[in-house]
Amino acid sequence: MIVQACLNGARPADFHPDLPLTAAAMARQGAACIAAGAAELHIHPRNADGSESLEAVDETMLFVRQACPGIPVGVSTGEWIEGDAPRTLRRIEAWRDLPDYASVNLSEQGAADVMAALHRIGVGIEAGLSSTDDAERFVAVPGFSQCLRVLIEVEEQEMERARHIVDDVASVLVRAGCSLPILLHGFDATVWPLIDLADQRGWSTRVGFEDGKLLPDGKVATSNAMLVGEAVRNMRQPKIAMAGAITC
Q: Which terminus of the chain, N or C, has fewer Cβ atoms within 10 Å?
């Protein structure tokens, strides 16, 4: 079980005063998150104008590697970043300073091609699943078991429905014989309830401004590192085991 720090995502510049939009800021905040207990980093590299870019991966990785030596670092490959499937593949295949892994959203039409490109260049894959349809698509991909891990990513804001999504996705993975590690995370209202659920099920989780800016008490966190520190403390507290928990 680990806590991954997700520093920025697709959030706009006005989401939080400390949202990291430059390679230097991502490196600095990444180091602070590692000091707060995060085991890995997930970042969305940005251009000089603050927009997301797969072309910015090389420069960003140089900064982050220097600030966080030996720490696994991942990036997103979301189709919205380049807005064009062929260009997305070209950008990935042009990387020289490789991330350790990259997230691939199975809801996106070109997911299988992106996964194949990442395999070719030796970058690990986090398979992002937000529905049972995503899970079915994932287990139908040849060699899905070669991925690094599964991300169960829930954007549903009502917790009971969110939990049903988690259970349904996990059930598909179990039926397919999946033995990959799972990282579960929520978004905004479900960030902390799903961190608790991940802890109860022995899964990894993540936290940071990509997923939300509020602490469990509803106050706005001053930094990504503050969110990470709270999640790490939360996951170290003794918990009552859940009956009938689904594992993969």
A: N
- Residue 227 CA: distances (Å) to CA of 34, 89, 90, 172: 12, 33, 35, 31
Which stretches of 96-148 are assigned E, i.e. beta strand? 101-105, 124-129
Task: Evaluate whether 29 touches 208 at the Cβ level (below 8 Å).
Answer: no
| DSSP E strands, the chain | 3-6, 40-43, 73-76, 101-105, 124-129, 149-153, 182-185, 204-207
Write down the domain spans for the chain.
Answer: 3-236
> Which residue type sits at 59?
E
Sign of CA dihedral 57, 58, 59, 63: positive
C-alpha span between 30 and 216 (Å, rounded): 21
Candidates 71, 7, 67; CA nearest to 43 is 7
Q: Give average pLDDT by consecutive 10-residue segment, the chain, 248 residues.
A: 97 98 98 98 97 98 98 98 96 98 96 97 98 97 95 96 97 97 97 97 97 98 98 78 40
pLDDT of residue 247: 44
CA 131 centroid distance within chain: 16
Third-level CATH fold of 3-236: TIM Barrel (3.20.20)
pTM equals: 0.93
Torsions phi, psi of 104, nearest 5? Answer: -125, 125
